[in-house]
Design a protein that fits this description.
Elements lengths: L2 H4 L4 H6 L2 H5 L4 E5 L2 H18 L4 E6 L9 H13 L7 E4 L8 H12 L3 E6 L5 H13 L7 E5 L2 H5 L1 H6 L3 E6 L1 H6 L19 H16 L3 E4 L8 H13 L5 E4 L5 H8 L3 H16 L5 E3 L2 E3 L1 H16 L6 H7 L9
Parallel strand pairs: 1-2, 1-8, 2-3, 3-4, 4-5, 5-6, 6-7, 7-8
Antiparallel strand pairs: 9-10
Length: about 350
């Protein structure tokens, strides 16, 4: 099958439909808020884009934790400048202040208004309800940045309770879990150990919150993004946490707060070579059959399993894994040929 023949029936549109674009995000979201580190993050993104042939992680420039107190306006202007002057092909986002913070309106007007054409999304922290989403959306529209999706950070028990409603909003593309604020919100009822790389996968209230957020995202075709691991010097802890987030809790994306965490996240969220090989064979055979049911190694496959195996290939591509020519041409296709 030639690439040209495959384009009219691209697997993303055939198998995923309207959810295709919403789920197509890099598995790693790298945060930095200090001037020098933001610049280095963008440089590293460009280097790894050249290495893998496409962008494998987002860079989110941080105003909430990055802006010095009293210098919020200057920091927002710096973030807008960095986003506006980022290399072509860069995937750059910004985390603004909370919707009730005095700096929020200026953040949105400056960053979305001046650099919205270069941004992939805006991250809004401490979202408690759909009302907060609506307020952020109104600010986007006022900044003439109505094309930008919102990513929201769920950081309290009440917000977890409303996760399904928040995820259902069409402006929301991804929900992230804010571990440390969530633990703090319980007034000492959850021990500090639950903020560590191991404890966050063991305490029932924390695990329940993570599962609720993941379930809400999958119910509405959105991307669940796992929280940070603060032990950034411990590569084993990072690898273990990323693997558990992916394999046990259903997360398809994860935060990085140090450059050393990016590659472990890519590795943990990437399918194994055997999975890639099987997925490639099944999807290629399905395409040859015009997506009708097929028999593969004595088992029946149809669009339900095709969807699963296509998502394996998408995850492999997004994490920088090499794909065989039988399926690689779909990822080399121009953007106009893909599902939006």
């Amino acid at each position: 099958m030639t690439a040209a023949a495959a384009l009219p029936a691209h697997p993303a549109s055939v198998l995923l439909g309207a959810q295709a674009a919403a789920r197509r995000l890099p598995v790693c979201d790298h945060y930095s808020g200090v001037d020098a580190r933001m610049r280095k993050s963008l440089e590293l993104q460009a280097q790894m884009t050249a290495e893998f042939g496409h962008c494998v992680f987002d860079v989110t420039l941080d105003c909430e934790d990055g802006a010095p107190v009293g210098q919020e306006r200057e920091h927002a202007e710096l973030v807008a400048t960095l986003a506006r002057t980022a290399p072509l092909g860069a995937r750059v986002a910004a985390r603004v202040h909370t919707v009730d913070h005095p700096a929020f309106a200026h953040d949105m007007a400056t960053i979305a208004g001046e650099a919205g054409h270069r941004l992939t999304h805006i991250m809004v922290p401490k979202v408690e309800s759909v009302d907060d989403v609506l307020q952020a959306e109104k600010a986007l529209l006022a900044a003439s940045a109505g094309h930008l999706p919102l990513h929201v950070l769920i950081e309290s028990p009440a917000a977890v309770q409303r996760a399904f409603e928040i995820a259902a909003h069409p402006r929301v593309q991804s929900l992230s879990f804010g571990l440390m604020d969530f633990v703090s919100a319980h007034g000492g009822a959850i021990p500090a150990s639950a903020m560590g790389s191991r404890g966050q996968f063991e305490h029932p209230l924390v695990v329940r919150a993570k599962l609720e957020i993941a379930a809400a995202c999958h119910a509405h075709g959105k991307v669940p993004s796992h929280c940070v691991v603060t032990e950034f010097a411990d590569s084993d802890a990072m690898q273990s946490a990323a693997t558990r987030a992916s394999e046990d809790l259903g997360y398809t994306r994860m935060w990085s707060i140090h450059p050393a965490q990016i590659r472990p996240i890519l590795q943990a969220f990437s399918p194994q070579q055997g999975e890639i090989d099987v997925a490639s064979k099944i999807v290629a055979a399905a395409a040859d059959a015009d997506w009708a049911p097929i028999s593969f190694e004595g088992k029946l496959h149809d669009r339900a399993s095709y969807r699963f195996y296509w998502q394996v290939l998408e995850r492999a591509h997004s994490t920088g894994r090499a794909l065989p020519p039988t399926v690689r041409h779909w990822f080399d296709a121009p953007a106009s040929a893909r599902a939006d």
